[in-house]
Amino acid sequence: MSNELLSPAQMSEADQLTIAAGPLDGYGLMQRAGEAVATKVLKRYPAATHVHVLCGPGNNGGDGYVVARILAGCGVGTTIWASGTPRPETDAALAAKQCPLKPRPLSGFDAEAGSIVVDALYGAGLSKPLSGDDAKAVDTASALRLPVIAVDLPSGVSGASGEILGRAFRADITVTFARKKPGHLLLPGRERCGEIVLADIGIGDGIVAQLAVSTFENGPDLWLRQFPVPAVDAHKYKRGHVGVFSGGPSATGAARLSALAAARSGAGAVTVLSPANAMQVNAAHLTSIMLRKADDSVDIDEFIGERRPSAFVLGPGFGVGERTRKFALALLSSALPRDTRIDGLVFDADAITSFREAPDVLFEASRRSDASALVMTPHDGEFARLFPGIAGDIAASKLDKARLAAVRANAVIVYKGADTVIASPDGRAAINANGAPWLATAGSGDVLSGLTAGLLAQGMPAFEAACAAVWIHTEAGSLFGPGLIAEDLPLALVPVLRDLVEARTAAR
Ligand SMILES: NC(=O)C1=CN([C@@H]2O[C@H](COP(=O)(O)OP(=O)(O)OC[C@H]3O[C@@H](n4cnc5c(N)ncnc54)[C@H](O)[C@@H]3O)[C@@H](O)[C@H]2O)[C@@H](O)CC1
Ligand SMILES: Nc1ncnc2c1ncn2[C@@H]1O[C@H](COP(=O)(O)OP(=O)(O)O)[C@@H](O)[C@H]1O
Ligand SMILES: [K+]
């Protein structure tokens, strides 16, 4: 698998393990890294009049000296602008020595139209905000509108968090090594990377396997093996039954969007559970989706006992308050008829907000050993309501925050946004990067919660179901593109689901 994301510390461990295993040493890895970047420059910008290589004091700068040496050797006009000098006897110092070009101080950096910038100032070792000549170089490259190829990461972007430290280059291409880092996918870093190219520099899969990586880029590789495909002898209840709770008469649409998505995802049966006073409204808008009254926890118990649902969605349009808390706790509780198994619960929107004054009540319920698997899908605002301490931790990245929240709540957390992070209480986490802003439309989150419940009901484990739902949802949104409204999304899932079923069947 190449979907693992390495933290800067893991990348340097991979570096050490590779060197220890031989035959490549640190300088050999640097040669390969520099060759990969130089090859990309030559291929992508064959007509460039001149290449300006900006070299920092560490190994990122070392890669830059290799790039400059190769380009100059190929007859490309090349200038090195150095920010500091490599420490003596380091690989970077050796790379600088092997390069025949005399570096000029970065303070004088200037470039002509038609030239290219290679940013080799800082990569994984970035430890403080860019300042002085480094920051000025970012401004100069940006003012001159020159194409930038970043080595490993655009300087100024944190590889761990995607944060911008002070200033950062806006690269057209970022060539990184062995595996991507979280900062390539988390915002705002992702936006600064341009096209991301992964170069093999000799750090093998076996080395990465030794790191016990638990952070991944979300994609089918992560969950296709658990993706449900109906058996030949399927019948509707074998394909899972999802219950979706509806709000009152003026707030029923969210539940129906969720229910439709659950049905499209392959759940064999879906029931909208409606307050008595909203039955008419719901009935007027439902066809294949079933409808049943659910005013209190007795109604829920009866539904569970009689109809054996396998997953629930609670929250979209449901309303904030005591009733919502009661429903949530009843669903999490062990008061289910014996031999009934709920594969999973999805708490979204109002089910999250209802616990803002007492999140621990929810967390205690979900921590009980007999609680059903729980997936919660907060956007930024909802996340801050349920996890105020974690949300306010300025040292934590979105990835860290989702992980901490998952442990605190004993739930899979889908921390939504343009860089949705899915985190499991067992420590695994995935960052989703195939999204599109077309999804920023009212009701698209309701579709996501229904889709997640549909996959849970078909037996997908909670983390995999959440990752799959997020990926499918964003893929559908990207494919549909302009004009997308939430009503379009359930049908837009179909081509994405078809491709996944084909891929799953082919892999058998
Ligand atoms: N780890 C690996 O497996 C490989 C790493 N390579 C390269 O090595 C890079 C990492 O090298 P390093 O760990 O030396 O780190 P960097 O080269 O990113 O930076 C390290 C140096 O810069 C200083 N520094 C950091 N931020 C600064 C700032 N804002 N202002 C001024 N000085 C600052 C640090 O104190 C240190 O001296 C990678 O990004 C990659 O380009 C490659 O050579 C190939 C293999
Ligand atoms: N700019 C964006 N790029 C990609 N996905 C986005 C973007 N903005 C929102 N989304 C996704 O759209 C959905 C919106 O959900 P939510 O905020 O709950 O809205 P609603 O409550 O109106 O349904 C989430 O899945 C979120 O990740
Ligand atoms: K860089």
UniProtKB/TrEMBL annotation:
Top-level taxon: Bacteria
Residues in YjeF C-terminal domain copies: 219-500
Pfam short name (any one): Carb_kinase
Cofactor stoichiometry and binding remark: Binds 1 potassium ion per subunit.
Binding-site residues, (6S)-NADPHX: 59-63, 123-129, 152, 254, 317, 379, 446
Subunit structure comment from the entry: Homotetramer.
Family under the similarity heading: In the N-terminal section; belongs to the NnrE/AIBP family. Belongs to the NnrE/AIBP family.
Protein name: Bifunctional NAD(P)H-hydrate repair enzyme
